[in-house]
Design brief:
With about 350 residues, this protein is of the alpha/beta class. It has ten helices and 15 strands.
């Protein structure tokens, strides 16, 4: 099958540590270009790829030039949030499919413009919620769809860590990132719970506070969500908790079973499973998931590339990123008004 030539915009940690290694293992894409405002960073990445993998890529310091280059078939955007809209607009104008990191933008209005531009241009456009591709998460989703956990009563997604003030960190500046812990990790958790449970957020309330640090974004978010299917979900995302390896937790509680996954919410596919299920004859048996770990980023980019090659719906369309953006804004509104927000 044909491989699509992919160009990366933004050579930050996600691109260097996760997406580039993921692309190198992908079946349906090949890396041909990278863009960053730092010439030295781009050149260092290109030199490393040539030395270690025998791959020659072209470097750019201007996103528009990379997008226009005929050596790029599709674009991955891993740049800071405040330039996402401009770069997605360039992809739409050039007719290039685009996979954009979360959060897509700083506001719902910004993201809506991105969606409108892409759909008007008729290009494939996706949101990079890579944790949907974790093998445990997918297996758990399938088991829930098959009714093996019965009716889902409640769940929890927790991803917390220590992120003190750092000079030059755009994630800690509201005007650049749109928010803090909620926009950085909370949106991942909300999307993942909607995906696994196969249901949308209906009501929410909670707290998005700046309790520990002095930057102008939230350093903690703790939400209570009621899904359309009636399940109640707890979302924890924080920059101000010294949790260590205990900071990642996914829990599902149903009428026929319980799943507790530790270490699955993060950038590396791995983790551990606890829990049980009730069999048809009433026996309680341990929950077993198959740890066929590979690379979430490889699976994410291959799935998006296949949607382009086969002209089928994106695995995580840009519209899902818009929806999660609206849920996040509702959470901020709930904090400001001490209210329960009815979304749908």
């Amino acid at each position: 099958m044909k491989k699509l030539k992919i160009g990366i915009i933004g050579a930050g940690g996600i691109a260097r540590k996760r997406m580039i290694p993921g692309i190198l293992k992908a079946e349906h894409v090949t890396l041909t270009a990278i863009m960053d405002v730092s010439v030295s960073v781009c050149e260092a990445i290109a030199a490393q790829l040539q030395e270690e993998n025998g791959i020659n890529i072209r470097t750019f310091t201007d996103a528009a030039e990379l997008i226009r280059w005929e050596g790029v078939d599709l674009v991955y955007i891993g740049s800071p949030v405040f330039v996402h809209k401009e770069q997605v607009a360039l992809c739409a104008a050039a007719g290039k499919p685009v996979l954009c990191e979360k959060p897509l933008g700083r506001t719902v209005e910004e993201v809506q413009e991105m969606v409108d531009l892409c759909r008007k241009a008729g290009i494939h456009a996706g949101t990079a919620f890579m944790m949907r591709f974790h093998t445990f998460h997918r297996q758990l989703k399938n088991m829930i769809e098959e009714g093996k956990f019965g009716a889902i009563v409640s769940g929890r997604a927790q991803q917390v860590f220590w992120y003190p003030p750092m000079e030059g960190s755009w994630r800690q500046v509201k005007a650049l990132g749109g928010g803090g812990a909620l926009m950085d990790v909370g949106v991942h958790n909300i999307d993942l719970m909607e995906y696994i449970l196969g249901s949308k957020t209906a009501y929410l309330t909670g707290f998005t506070d700046t309790r520990t640090f002095d930057y102008d974004v939230d350093d903690s978010c703790h939400l209570l969500i009621k899904m359309e299917n009636g399940a109640v979900v707890y979302i924890d995302g924080a920059f101000n908790e010294n949790s260590g390896p205990q900071g990642s937790l996914l829990e599902i509680y149903g009428t026929k079973g319980t799943a507790i996954l530790r270490g699955t919410l993060g950038q590396v596919e791995g983790g551990f499973v606890e829990g049980f299920m009730i069999t048809e004859d009433g026996k309680r048996v341990p929950l077993e998931l198959t740890p066929d770990f590979t690379d979430m980023y490889t699976k994410e980019v291959d799935a998006f590339a296949l949607s382009v090659l086969d002209d089928t719906p994106e695995p995580v369309p840009l519209e899902q990123g818009l929806w999660i953006q609206s849920v996040a804004e509702a959470a901020y509104e709930a904090q400001a008004d001490s209210a329960v927000i009815h979304i749908v």
